[in-house]
Amino acid sequence: MSNVLVFAELRGAEPKKVSFEMLSAAKQIAAATGGQVIAAAIGDGLSGLGAKLGAYGATKVFVANGVAKYSTEGFAHILAGLIKQENPAVVLLGATAQGKDLAPRLAAKLGVGLASDIVGFRMDGNKFVAKRPVFAGKAFTEVTFLAAPAIATVRPNVLPIGETNGAAAAEAVLAADLGGPKAQIIEIVAGVSKRLDLTEADRIVSGGRGIKDKTNFKILEELADVIGASVGASRAAVDAGYADVSMQVGQTGKTVNPTLYVACGISGAIQHLAGMRTSKVIVAINKDPEAPIFQVADYGIIGDLFEAVPLMTAEAKKLLA
Amino acid sequence: MNIVVLCKQVPDTESKIKLLGDNSNYDQEGIKWVLNVYDEYAVEEALKTREAGKAAKVTVLGLGPKRCEEALRTALAMGADDAIHVEDPALDGADAFAVAKALAGALKGVDYGVILCGKVAVDDDMGAVPQMLAELLGIAQVTVVSKVEIEGDTVKAYRDVEGGAKEIVQAKMPVLLAATKGLNEPRYASLPGIMKAKRKPLVKKTAADVGSSAAENKTKVAGWSLPAARLAGKVFKEGELADRVAQVVKLLREEAKAL
Fold this sequence. Notes:
The structure holds 2 protein chains of 2 kinds.
Chain A: E1 4-7, E2 10-11, E3 14-15, H1 17-33, E4 37-43, H2 49-54, E5 60-65, H3 72-86, E6 90-94, H4 97-110, E7 114-118, E8 120-124, E9 127-134, E10 139-145, E11 150-154, E12 170-173, E13 183-189, E14 203-207, H5 217-227, E15 230-233, H6 235-239, E16 260-264, H7 270-276, E17 281-286, E18 299-302, H8 305-320
Parallel strand pairs in A: 1-4, 1-6, 4-5, 5-12, 6-11, 7-11, 14-15, 14-16, 16-17, 17-18
Antiparallel strand pairs in A: 2-3, 8-9, 9-10
Chain B: E1 2-7, E2 9-11, E3 33-35, H1 37-51, E4 57-63, H2 69-78, E5 82-86, H3 96-106, E6 114-118, H4 129-137, E7 140-151, E8 154-160, E9 166-172, E10 175-179, H5 191-197, E11 202-205, H6 207-210, E12 219-225, E13 234-236, H7 241-254
Parallel strand pairs in B: 1-4, 1-6, 4-5, 5-11, 6-10, 7-10
Antiparallel strand pairs in B: 2-3, 7-8, 8-9
Helix pairs in contact in B: 2-5, 3-4
C-alpha cells in the first residue's frame, strides 16, 4: 500500500538514465511512506534487470519480456494490472515520448490523477506533493493527489541520481499480455540525427534567426561534435525553414535542461527563454548587445556567430584534446 | 465520417505570467487569449481531410468560461461547421481527468470517426486530456502526430519520438490523434469566414449535460510560484574575438565546470 512503483523505461534492453533518476527519487518517497521501491520493465531480450535496477534502489523488479514494440494500450494494460495487484502509493514514469503518451492513459484507466513532467517533489507527511512547470517554466505549480496511486511523469535530467550500490533486486515475471490493443506500430522510421534527444541532452548548441541558412547549421554541428552536444534551434530558425521542427526549443517546442546551453544568433524571445532557462550554464553569442538572451546568459560574447563559433570549436578541441 | 476537434483557449505564448497576491493562480488581467497553437494544427488537418472528401463534417468542441467562445469562433471562421461549448462554473478548476470526463460526456450521441486535438495546451502543459479522453471513450490514440493518412476506415499516423525518429501507428476508426507542429500550416480565417462563423451553430452544454464537474478532480493545484530570477552573467565585448572566445571556453572548464 505504501510502495513506490517506477516504470523503468528502456532504450533497447538497457534502462534509460531517467529510470535511475526515478529510482533515486522513489527511494526518498518510500522512506517517507514506509514502503519499498519496486520497478517494472517491458521489452524484449531483457536480462539482468534485477541487478541493474537494484543498484539504484529497487527491491523487486517485475519484467514483461518478449514485447518488441511499444503499444500505448498494451503497456497501460500490463501496468494497470500490476498496479491493481501491488497497490503502490506512488507511480513514476519518465516524461519521455513514451511516458508522456502512456501515463495519462494509465491514470484514466485506473481513475486516478496525474501530474506530468514534474521537476521536483516534497513529502507532506506520507503524502506526495509534486512540483511541475506550467507555461513552459514561466511559473510552477504544486500538485496534490486526491486518489491513490498518485501518478507522475518525471522530467529527465533534473532529479539527482543517489547511491548506486544497492543489492540485486528479486525479479518477478509479468505476463506479456497486451490485451488486444486497437492501435499498432507498423513501422519505425529512424531519425537522421545520431545525437541524444534535446530533452535528454547534457549539452546543447542552438541556432536562431542569425544562422541565416539551413546549411550554416554545419558550424554548430562541428562545435556539437567536439563538446558532445545535441543541436537545437529557436522557433524563428524553424519557421524560417533553417531547422527541423524536432530541433525546436521553447514554449511551442521542447523544454530542455542541459548542463550547458550555447545559444548562437538567438535573440532570446520570451517563448524561447521559457524552454531553456533552467539550463545550468548558458552561453550566448550574438551580434546585438541589446539581445534579451544576454539577460539570462552566464557568459555572453558579443560578436558574429560565423566567426565566434568556429573559434570556440577550435578552443574546445584544444582544451578537450 | 465526421471529425471532432478539441479546442482550448489559452494565453498567447508571448504573455508574461504574473501571480495573484495569494499565489492561488496566475493573474488573468490583461491576458491576450488565443486558440491553443497545437489545436490550430488539429483544426487545419480536419478541414483538409473534409476538403479531400474524406470527412463530411467538422465539429469543434471546447470547455471553459464564456470567453472560450472566441476560440471556437476562430475555428469556425477557419472553416469548421459547428461547435459545442461546455460552459459551467461547476467546471471551474477542473483537472485533466474531470475535463476528459466532461468531453467524453459531451460526445455522447455524437457520430465521429476521428477526434483531432493538440498534443498539449501551452498553459498548464499537462498533455493529458487527449489520452485520458481516448481511454474513457475506449478508442485508439496516437499522440505527437506530424502526418496523417486516411484510407477508408483505417488511419495511419506518424508519431514523432526522440531524436527525430517516427513511429508509424495504424488503427481502425474511431481514433484520437493529438497533433504536433509540422503536421500542416494552419490557414488564417478569411474575412468572409469570420462573418459566416457568427451564424454557424454553437450548442451550449452544462456540467449536468456532460456528467462531470470539478468534484470529479483527482488532483489539486495547491499553489503557484515563479522561477528564481536568473542573474545576468559576464558579457565579453572588448578586445579580439579570439581572445574573448578563449576566455569563455576556459571559464566553462574551470569556473562553470560545464566542459
